[in-house]
Structure formats: structure tokens, C-alpha cells
Specification:
The complex is a heterodimer of chains A (about 100) and B (about 325). Chain A is of the alpha+beta class. Chain A is built from two helices and three strands. Chain A has a single domain (about 10-90), classed as Ubiquitin-like (UB roll). Helix content of chain A is about 20%, strand content about 20%. Chain A has a three-stranded antiparallel sheet with strand order 2-1-3, with helices on one face. The longest helix of chain A has 12 residues, at about 30-45. The model of chain A has no long low-confidence stretch (mean pLDDT about 90). Chain B contains 13 helices and two strands, in the order H-H-H-H-H-H-H-H-H-H-E-E-H-H-H. With about 325 residues, chain B is an all-alpha fold. Mean pLDDT of chain B is about 90; it is low at about 1-10. The longest helix of chain B has 29 residues, at about 160-190. The chains are: A alpha+beta (about 100), B mainly alpha (about 325). The interface between A and B is medium-sized, with 26 and 32 residues. Chain A: It comes from Bradyrhizobium frederickii. Chain A: Its EC number is 1.14.13.149. Chain A: One of its GO terms (molecular function) is phenylacetyl-CoA 1,2-epoxidase activity. Chain A: Keywords: Oxidoreductase.
């Protein structure tokens, strides 16, 4: 029997500075335990992280780049969602 | 992340549509936008990048062999730990690059098989032997130095996954070059024999390192489209000249002589090197370098001897995957 292709995993790492887990890349591993060990060896050789998540790539649902216009349209036209939309008198100072 | 599921089937009026899409694609490149895996791209762009990124990955993996040769014989524990870390990095770089290449639609297995079958190339430089400890210093100093020259512009390559992999690689590569140069400094400050060993290594590696930048601009077959697509930002000869200009003062500091008696500094400060022996380059690419057969045999052996590990891991994962279902049925 031929060995099946080794599954793909996405790797997320939380760095020291307290930010959220961030996508750093992908790797192949046959199960979650091996994926975690491989992620440590491949992506944290210089103390890059304090925590690792590995997620099977097949479990990710992605938005379609071809549809990005429609997908993100609702945010395009709403400049009143930004603080700079509102005028505050200069005398009031920084707000 | 980069599954191909979003790639829709080809439509019938493909020719017309492709022309419009290709123009749009080029406009995005010209505007310095990054191309991402699920974006539309011309087949030739996909093919060029798959070839280039996978060759780059193969080079990192094969590049572990000449240096791995000296791990057990490093002259001190400090040198051994550094060399081991460097070889580990090369493996990591290979893996980042394979992952980037896979986003273009080929599987890891296909890419690796193409290399093992001799269908995909790797950098000519790794077909030269590491005869003495000074070769390890020279590889770090010159081979990694040349690689950095090549890779820094690739951090701005139009293909997102490749550019991101290159940023990681470049951050780590600087350690490689510095550890190599430190070995050279130590040898050059040592006994006459040690200095002679350093000179001998430079004599053997200099010309093959200049060949790493690829054929001269006049004959390079891939450069034009790669430049248009912003995969390549500088020509082979431009990068080679930059490298030579940066390296000559480093060799002078070491008190070593670059094995090119015809080399002169021109009025603009550039070091002009003599004609490169491209017959040697072609011979090495054709499989007739000093170590081509050894390198391929070592890679194939490693792959075959690792087969049982891949099989066992797959069997274990399959067994574990079945377990929760079996328990639920009880």
C-alpha cells in the first residue's frame, strides 16, 4: 500500500510581547503531536514564541479572493466608523 | 491555508478572458501589489515560480550535506554547536521554501520526487567537496554571503509566500555568514599551516561561488520575464558585481589572495574580475561536478531509509483517527 501524502498544518505562534497568535507558515505532519514538535523545530529555533497552535489546513474555511469586492464592501462606505470622521473643537485638546 | 479548492474550472472563452486577466495581473505587479496563492496568475508565472522556489528548497536541503560532513570533526565544542545549528537552519529554510512552493499547487511529495528523480535541479555550488575545516569557514563566508546577495531582493518578490519565506531566511542567514568569517579570521591569525589551509579553501571556492549567480546576463534564459514579473529585481551580473565588491575588502582584511590575477579596481571603485569558466558551470549542472553522484545518492538513501518512519507515522495516525469512533460505538 502506498503511503498517503502527509497532511498539511498551519502554524500560529504567540510571541513574547503578548500579542495574539499569528500565522507563521505551514508544515506537513501525520498527526497533531508531531505537528506541534515540528512547529517548534521549524518556527521557534530562536525563542520566537511562548505558545504554538497547529490547525489542519483542511479545517480552515477561507474567503474567496475573487469575491473580495463584495465581501468587504460594507466596510468601504462607512467612514463614520473612524474617529477622524468627528470634529472636536481644538480648545478641547487631545481626545 | 492555501488549498486549491477555490480555483474554479476553466471557462470556454479562455483565450479572451486570459488576455484581459493577464493585463490586470501585470497592472497589479506594476503597482507593487503582492500576488497571493488563490489569485489569478498566468500559467507561466506559476510554472516559473514553482521551478524557482522548489529548486531553492532542494538547494537548502542538499546544502546540508557538504557541511554535515564536518559536524563530527569540528575543532571545538563551540564550533560544533554553531555548525549543527547552521545545518539545522538550512533544513528549516528548505521547509519554509517547500511550503511556499506548494501554495502554487504541487504537493510536497511531487516536488521531492522530482529532485530525487534528477528532474529538478539544485544549486551547482553543493556539488563541490568540503575537503578541510577551512571549507566550512569559506562556505559560511562566501556561499552564504552570495546567497544573501541573491535573497535580499527576493524579500520584495511579487509572490507573497515566497517573499515572506525569504524574509525569515534572510534574518537567519546573517548568523551563517558571520560564523563562517569568524572561522576564517581564526585560521588566518593562526599558524602558517592554518593560513595556508584558508588560502587553499578560497582558491577552490572562489570561482564556483561566482558561478552561483547564474549565467551572464547576455545568455540567461529566464531573466526577462522574471524581471517583468518582479520575481527578479537585479540581473545576475549586477548581483555578482555587488558580491565581488563587498568581498574583496573582506579577503584583504584576512590577508588572503583572491585567485584572480587579472582582477583590477576600476575608476568607480568596482573590482573587475576575469572571465568565468562557464564550461565548468555547464558540466556541473549537467551532473558532472565532483560530487553530483554522491549528493544524489545521499539524498536518495536518506529518503529510502526514512520510508518506514513515514509509513509508521501514517499508520499510527490512521489508527488514532479510528479510535474515538470505535469507543463511541461501544
Amino acid at each position: 500500500m502506498a503511503t498517503p501524502n502527509t497532511p498539511l498544518w498551519e502554524v500560529f505562534i504567540r510571541s513574547r510581547n503578548g500579542l495574539a497568535h499569528k500565522h507563521v507558515g505551514s508544515l506537513h505532519a501525520s498527526d497533531a503531536t508531531m505537528a506541534l514538535q515540528a512547529a517548534r523545530d521549524i518556527y521557534t529555533r530562536r525563542g520566537e514564541g511562548l505558545s504554538i497552535w497547529v490547525v489542519p489546513s483542511s479545517a480552515i474555511t477561507a474567503s474567496d479572493p475573487a469575491e473580495k469586492g463584495m465581501m468587504f464592501e460594507p466596510a468601504e462606505s462607512k467612514i463614520y466608523r473612524h474617529p477622524t470622521f468627528y470634529e472636536v473643537p481644538e480648545e478641547v485638546g487631545h481626545m | 491555508m492555501y488549498t486549491q479548492a477555490l480555483n474554479t474550472a476553466e471557462t470556454d472563452d479562455r483565450g479572451l478572458e486570459d488576455a484581459a486577466k493577464a493585463a490586470q495581473f501585470q497592472a497589479r505587479i506594476d503597482a507593487e501589489e503582492r500576488i497571493e496563492p488563490n489569485d489569478w496568475m498566468p500559467e507561466a508565472y506559476r510554472k516559473t515560480l514553482t521551478r524557482q522556489i522548489s529548486q531553492h528548497a532542494h538547494s537548502e536541503i542538499v546544502g546540508m550535506l557538504p557541511e554535515g560532513n564536518w559536524i563530527t570533526r569540528a575543532p571545538s565544542l563551540r564550533r560544533k554547536a554553531a555548525l549543527l545549528a547552521k545545518v539545522q537552519d538550512e533544513c528549516g529554510h528548505g521547509l519554509y521554501l517547500y511550503a511556499a512552493a506548494e501554495t502554487l499547487g504541487s504537493s510536497r511529495e511531487e516536488l521531492v520526487d522530482a529532485m530525487l528523480a534528477g528532474k529538478a535541479k539544485y544549486s551547482s555550488i553543493f556539488n563541490y567537496p568540503t575537503l578541510t575545516w577551512a571549507d566550512i569557514g569559506t562556505i559560511g563566508w562566501l556561499v552564504d554571503g552570495a546567497a544573501i546577495m541573491n535573497q535580499i531582493p527576493l524579500c520584495r518578490c511579487s509572490y507573497g509566500p515566497y517573499a515572506r519565506a525569504m524574509i525569515r531566511v534572510c534574518k537567519e542567514e546573517s548568523f551563517h555568514q558571520r560564523q563562517g568569517y569568524e572561522i576564517m579570521v581564526t585560521l588566518c591569525r593562526g599558524s602558517d599551516e592554518q593560513k595556508a589551509m584558508a588560502q587553499d579553501a578560497l582558491d577552490r571556492w572562489w570561482w564556483p561561488v561566482l558561478m552561483m549567480f547564474g549565467p551572464p546576463d547576455a545568455t540567461s534564459q529566464h531573466s526577462d520575464t522574471s524581471t517583468k514579473w518582479k520575481i527578479k529585481r537585479f540581473s545576475n551580473d549586477e548581483l555578482r558585481q555587488k558580491f565581488v565588491d563587498a568581498t574583496v575588502p573582506q579577503a584583504q582584511y584576512l590577508g588572503l589572495t583572491i585567485p584572480d590575477p587579472g582582477m583590477v579596481q576600476d575608476a568607480d571603485g568596482h573590482w573587475r574580475y576575469s572571465e568565468i569558466d562557464w564550461t565548468e558551470f555547464k558540466q556541473v549542472l549537467a551532473g558532472n561536478g565532483p560530487c553530483n553522484r554522491d549528493r544524489m545518492a545521499a539524498r536518495r538513501r536518506a529518503h529510502e531509509e526514512g520510508a518506514w518512519v513515514r509509513e509508521a507515522a501514517a499508520a499510527y495516525a490512521a489508527k488514532r483517527a479510528q479510535r474515538p469512533t470505535a469507543q463511541a460505538a461501544e
